[in-house]
UniProtKB/TrEMBL annotation:
Coiled coil: none annotated. Homodimer. It comes from Hyphomonas pacifica. Residues 472-695 form the Glycosyl hydrolase family 67 C-terminal domain. One of its GO terms (molecular function) is alpha-glucuronidase activity. Its EC number is 3.2.1.131. Residues 31-147 form the Alpha glucuronidase N-terminal domain. The keyword Hydrolase applies. This is Xylan alpha-1,2-glucuronidase. Gene3D superfamilies: Alpha-glucuronidase, C-terminal domain (3.90.1330.10), Chitobiase/beta-hexosaminidase domain 2-like (3.30.379.10), Glycosidases (3.20.20.80). It catalyses: Hydrolysis of (1->2)-alpha-D-(4-O-methyl)glucuronosyl links in the main chain of hardwood xylans.
Length: 719
C-alpha cells in the first residue's frame, strides 16, 4: 500500500510539473517586454510611483500602467501609486503636464528636445528618488521604457544620470500590408490590421503593438503597402484608420498612409493625375483636409511612384520633385510630411539598374519642398544580404534623405533562417561616404549632422503579422527591436543591442547572453556566405525570392533575372561597374570610387559587385576565385552548424516551446544552406567546367534536379 501511495504521489508530482511547465511555456507574444522576475530585488528598487503633474494625459496613464505591469512582474509586486513623493519613489514629470516639482528638476529643451528624457537619482525635498523627467509626456514614456529595460536586464538602477534624446525625428515602420490582409514579403501571418472588423472591433493586440513600438522609440507607422490601393483614402476606410490612430496616439505613434498617385482618377473620375493640373491639386488638397478631419495628427504620405509599374508624375512628363511637392503642399498646413521613395527603375531597361536612383534624383537636389524627405534604401539594389551603401547618401545636401531598411527578411531566408540584421545595418550606417572628407558616415547624413537637414528619419519595412510571436520567429523579433534602437541612435553598437535584447527576451545569465549574442553576431555573415558570397547578388528564385536560382535568364526583362547580376561565363564572373563597364562606381565620392574601382584595393566582400574577373583570379589570401567561392559556401554551412550546437547547449536554460521552435528553424536553415551551396556549385560548374577544390564533396544531384524545384506558393510573394 505504501508503495502504491508513493507511486500515486510521484505520478501526481509529474503531472503537476507537466501542467506547471505548460503554464509557464512561452510563445513569444510578450516580445522583449516579458519583465522576468529578478532573482534578488536590489535595495535601490523603487517602492512607489508618483506622477508629479497637475494633469494626467493618456500618455502618462500609459506610462503608469506600464510601470505597474512591469513592477508586478520584475519585483513580484506592483509599486504603490501615490500622489505624494516619499523616499525611494519613482517620480514621473514633464513640462507639458504642469509639473509640481522644485525649480531645476525638469531638463531644459536643449538637453532633451521634444522627445528625450532624463533618468536621474536625486533628492527632492530631501528624499532620495529616481526621477524620469522630460519636456513632453511622450518623453516621459520613453524614459519609463528605458528605466524598465535597465531593471529587467538586471542592470544597476542606483546612481542614475542618463540624458537621452533621439538622433532622428521620424522613426517609422512601413507595413507592406494590403487591405485584404495579405502582407507583401510578410512571413508571419496576415496583416495585423483587421480592416473588415474595424472600426467596430478594435483588436487589443493593437495596444500591445503600440507598447512594443514605443518601448524602442518608434513614433510612426505607415499602415498600407507602398504598392498602394487608393481605396484606403475613401471615407469608409478613413473611419478605420482613425480607430487605429486612436489606439496608437497615447504611445506617441502617428499614422501615415501610402498615396496612390492615380487616386484622383480611380476614386473620382478625374481625367488626369498630372501634379501640375489645378483640378488634381485641388483634389489632393480636399482629400488631405478630409483625412485630417478623421485623424487630426495624421503624419503624412509615403509614396512609391514610377517604379515597378506604379503610377507617378513621370507619366505626365513631370519630375519626382513636382509630384512630391504637390502632395507636400497639401499636408503642409497640417504639419504633415511626404516621404518619396527613391526606389525606382524605369520601364526601359537601363544599362545598370543600380545607377538609376542616383541618375534621377541628384539633378533634383534642392527642388523638393521643405517638408519632403526622399526615402532611400540602404543599398542601390534591393535589400540584398550585402550591398555597398547607396551612393545617394551624401550626394543630396539640399534634400533630407531618410534611410529605408528592410526588417522583414525577403532575401535572407524568410522567417526560418537566423539572420540578425543589426550587423548589416551597422555596416551601412558606419560606412564612410567621404562626401565631406573622412568621417562623413551614412549615419551622419541620415541624422542631419552632415547637412543639417530640416527633417531626419529612418524607416523599416515591417516583419509584423498575426503569428503569436509577431515576427514569424523569436529571433526575427530582434530585428524589429534593433531597428527601433538604431533609429533612436544610428551610431549604436549592434552587439550592445543584441545583448540588450537577449537579456530581456531569453535570460540574464551571462553565459546564456554570451552564447546567444555570439550566434546573432555571426548569423548574417553566414547567410552572405551560403547565398551571395564575394559580392554576388540577387541570385534568389524569381518572384518569391525563395532559394537559389542563379540560372534564371529568361524573364520579361534582363534586370529581373539573376544572370543579369552575375554575368557568369566560361571566362569569369561578376558585374563590371568600373569605367570599363557601367561605371556605377563613379557615383560614389572620389576616394570611395577609387578604392572600389581598383582590384588592388576593393574588399573581397564587394569584389564581384564591382568587377568581372576570371575564375582563376588570385584572391588576397592566395587562393583562386573559384576556390574562395566554394570555401565561402562551406563556411556558411559550418557557421550554421555551429549555431545549432550552441543553441543545443542551452537546453534547460530556455523554455521548451521557444527552444524547440528555434531548434527546428535552425535545422531548416542548415538544410537550406546546404541546398544553396549544392545548387549554386552545380550551376557554376556547368558554366566554368572546373573541378571542385580538393576535399569538397560534389552536389548530390545534377543541375537539372535543382532547376526542376518549384515553389509557386512560397509565402509573402510580391504583386
Amino acid at each position: 500500500m505504501k508503495n502504491f501511495i508513493t507511486h500515486i504521489a510521484a505520478a501526481f508530482c509529474l503531472l503537476a510539473s507537466s501542467l506547471f511547465q505548460q503554464a509557464v511555456a512561452e510563445d513569444g507574444y510578450e516580445l522583449w517586454l516579458r519583465y522576468e522576475k529578478l532573482e534578488q530585488v536590489p535595495k535601490s528598487a523603487p517602492r512607489s510611483v508618483v506622477a508629479a503633474c497637475s494633469d494626467l494625459s493618456p500618455t502618462l496613464d500609459a506610462a503608469l500602467s506600464e510601470i505597474l505591469r512591469a513592477s508586478a512582474s520584475i519585483l513580484g509586486t506592483p509599486l504603490k501609486q501615490g500622489d505624494r513623493i516619499s523616499r525611494h519613489a519613482l517620480v514621473l514629470t514633464s513640462e507639458a503636464c504642469g509639473a509640481t516639482l522644485p525649480n531645476g528638476t525638469l531638463p531644459n529643451a536643449d538637453e532633451v528636445g521634444t522627445e528625450g528624457y532624463v533618468l536621474q537619482s536625486t533628492l527632492i525635498n530631501g528624499k532620495p528618488v529616481t526621477l524620469i523627467a522630460a519636456q513632453s509626456d511622450i518623453g516621459v514614456l520613453y524614459g519609463v521604457f528605458d528605466y524598465l529595460r535597465r531593471m529587467s536586464s538586471g542592470e544597476a538602477i542606483a546612481d542614475l544620470d542618463v540624458i537621452s534624446r533621439p538622433k532622428t525625428q521620424l522613426r517609422l515602420l512601413n507595413h507592406w500590408d494590403n487591405l485584404d490582409r495579405h502582407v507583401e514579403r510578410g512571413y508571419s501571418g496576415q496583416s495585423i490590421w483587421d480592416w473588415h472588423r474595424l472600426p467596430g472591433y478594435v483588436d487589443p493586440r493593437y495596444t500591445d503593438y503600440a507598447r512594443a513600438n514605443a518601448s524602442i522609440g518608434i513614433n510612426g507607422t505607415s499602415l498600407t503597402n507602398v504598392n498602394s490601393d487608393a481605396t484606403v483614402l475613401t471615407p469608409h476606410y478613413l473611419e478605420k484608420v482613425a480607430a487605429i490612430a486612436d489606439v496608437l496616439r497615447p504611445y506617441g505613434i502617428k499614422v501615415y498612409l501610402t498615396a496612390r498617385f492615380s487616386a484622383p482618377i480611380e476614386l473620382d473620375g478625374l481625367a488626369t493625375a498630372d501634379p501640375l493640373d489645378p483640378a488634381v491639386q485641388t483634389w489632393w488638397q480636399a482629400k488631405t483636409d478630409e483625412i485630417y478631419d478623421y485623424v487630426p495628427d495624421f503624419g503624412g504620405f509615403l509614396v512609391k511612384a514610377n517604379s515597378e509599374g506604379q503610377p507617378g508624375p513621370q507619366d505626365y512628363g513631370r519630375s519626382h520633385a513636382e509630384g512630391a511637392n504637390m502632395l507636400a503642399k497639401a499636408v503642409a498646413p497640417h504639419g504633415g510630411v511626404v516621404m518619396w521613395r527613391a526606389f525606382v527603375y524605369s520601364a526601359e531597361e537601363p544599362e545598370d539598374r543600380v545607377r538609376q536612383a542616383y541618375t534621377e534624383f541628384v539633378p533634383l537636389d534642392g527642388q523638393f519642398a521643405e517638408n519632403v524627405l526622399v526615402q532611400v534604401k540602404n543599398g542601390p539594389l534591393d535589400f540584398q544580404p550585402r550591398e555597398p551603401f547607396h551612393p545617394l547618401f551624401g550626394a543630396m545636401p539640399e534634400t533630407p534623405l531618410m534611410i529605408e531598411l528592410q526588417i522583414t527578411k525577403e532575401y535572407l531566408g524568410f522567417s526560418t533562417h537566423l539572420a540578425y540584421l543589426g550587423t548589416l545595418w551597422e555596416e551601412v550606417l558606419a560606412a564612410d561616404t567621404k562626401t565631406k572628407g573622412d568621417g562623413t558616415t551614412v549615419a551622419s547624413v541620415v541624422d542631419g549632422e552632415t547637412y543639417d537637414y530640416a527633417y531626419t528619419g529612418m524607416a523599416g519595412v515591417s516583419n509584423i503579422g498575426t503569428d503569436r510571436n509577431w515576427a514569424g520567429s523569436i529571433f526575427d523579433q530582434a530585428n524589429w527591436y534593433a531597428f527601433g534602437r538604431l533609429a533612436w541612435n544610428p551610431d549604436a553598437s549592434a552587439e550592445d543591442i543584441a545583448r540588450e535584447w537577449v537579456k530581456q527576451t531569453f535570460s540574464r545569465k551571462p553565459e546564456v547572453v554570451d552564447e546567444i549574442t555570439d550566434m546573432m553576431m555571426k548569423s548574417r555573415e553566414a547567410v552572405v556566405d551560403y547565398m551571395t558570397p564575394l559580392g554576388l547578388t540577387h541570385l534568389m528564385g524569381t518572384g518569391h525570392h525563395y532559394g537559389p536560382a542563379p540560372w534564371v535568364d529568361d524573364l520579361g526583362r534582363a534586370d529581373w533575372t539573376p544572370y543579369y547580376y552575375h554575368k557568369a561565363t566560361r571566362g569569369g564572373i561578376g558585374f563590371d561597374r568600373t569605367e570599363t563597364g557601367s561605371d556605377a562606381v563613379d557615383q560614389y565620392a572620389g576616394p570611395v570610387a577609387q578604392e572600389w574601382a581598383s582590384l588592388e584595393t576593393v574588399p573581397d566582400s564587394l569584389l564581384l559587385w564591382f568587377h568581372h574577373v576570371p575564375w582563376d583570379y588570385e584572391m588576397q589570401d592566395g587562393s583562386t576565385l573559384w576556390q574562395s567561392l566554394v570555401a565561402h559556401y562551406a563556411r556558411g554551412i559550418t557557421t550554421v552548424a555551429e549555431m545549432q550546437s550552441e543553441w543545443a547547449s542551452l537546453k534547460g536554460e530556455i523554455d521548451s516551446e521557444r527552444f524547440n521552435q528555434v531548434t527546428d528553424y535552425l535545422n531548416i536553415q542548415h538544410e537550406e544552406a546546404q541546398w544553396w551551396r549544392d545548387a549554386s556549385i552545380a550551376y557554376w560548374q556547368s558554366i566554368n567546367q572546373l573541378p571542385l577544390p580538393a576535399g569538397e564533396a560534389p552536389p548530390p544531384h545534377d543541375l537539372d534536379y535543382y532547376k526542376s524545384l518549384s515553389f509557386p506558393n512560397a509565402p509573402g510573394q510580391g504583386e
